[in-house]
Amino acid sequence: MAELAEITDDNFEAEVLNSDLPVVIDFWAEWCAPCKQIAPIIKDLAEQYSGQVKVVKMDIDSNPATPGKYGIRAIPTILAFKNGEVVEQLQGARPKADFEAQIKNLL
User: Fold this and answer.
1) Which of 7, 32, 56, 60 is catalytic?
2) Which residues contact 8 (CB under 8 A, 6 or more apart)?
3) How many domains does the chain have?
4) Catalytic residue among 25, 35, 42, 75, which?
5) Is 8 a catalytic residue?
6) Per residue in 21-63, pLDDT tens?
7) Domain of residue 46, residue span
8) Are 34 and 92 spatial neighbours (Cβ–Cβ below 8 Å)?
């Protein structure tokens, strides 16, 4: 399994806002049990949609600026970006079908 790219406050604009592909970003933290619960789902979707959608993650503890800018108040929060704009948001542990539907809406 490929490791998901870890996005930081410093490379967020280049990797997410300026991406040629739609981007799904998982805001998470090491101490977050629901984040760990959905991690394998997010990783599977990253592999499944490789080349169509960029799937990345951001540790909110190490990178507080970006989650603050986007009003991330609870984790896990998954934002879908298209052309540098947020087009959808999911929050909390959910079934794989919910995350897959979010990705399909980007395509």
Assistant:
1) 32
2) 58, 62, 63
3) 1
4) 35
5) no
6) 999 999 999 999 999 999 999 999 999 999 999 999 999 999 9
7) 5-106
8) yes
